Amino acid sequence: MPISQKDRNLLRDLANQVAEIASLPIMAERKELWKRHNRLERVRPMILVFPEGSWRELFPNSELKCEDGRSRGIE
Asked: How far apart are CA 74 and CA 56, in angstroms?
């Protein structure tokens, strides 16, 4: 089943937001800090969070805007 145009537009908007955040200067700084951390150089403490198992608490179904189940999974 193809993704509806409404869901496609919502997902594209979200992807654009992610791209904008990723292009912020702070993200380039963080990338460099992680590289230095992985080279075992002394940098400030780094925190990596995997919210697996808690996505529904962070984004309950009532907050999702896509209509199709597959699109909601991507959202």
From this structure: 13
Q: What is the DSSP letter of 3?
A: P
Q: Which two tokens stand for residue 3?
A: 């993704």
What's the predicted TM-score (pTM) here?
0.77
For the chain, 75 residues long, the average pLDDT of each consecutive 10-residue run is 93 97 97 97 93 87 91 90
Q: What is the largest CA-CA distance in the chain?
A: 51
HEC-encoded secondary structure of 6-68? HHHHHHHHHHHHHHHHHCCHHHHHHHHHHHHHHCCCCCCCCCCCCCCCCHHHHCCHHHCCCCC
The CA-atom distances, in angstroms, between 56 and each of 28, 51, 59 are: 29, 10, 5
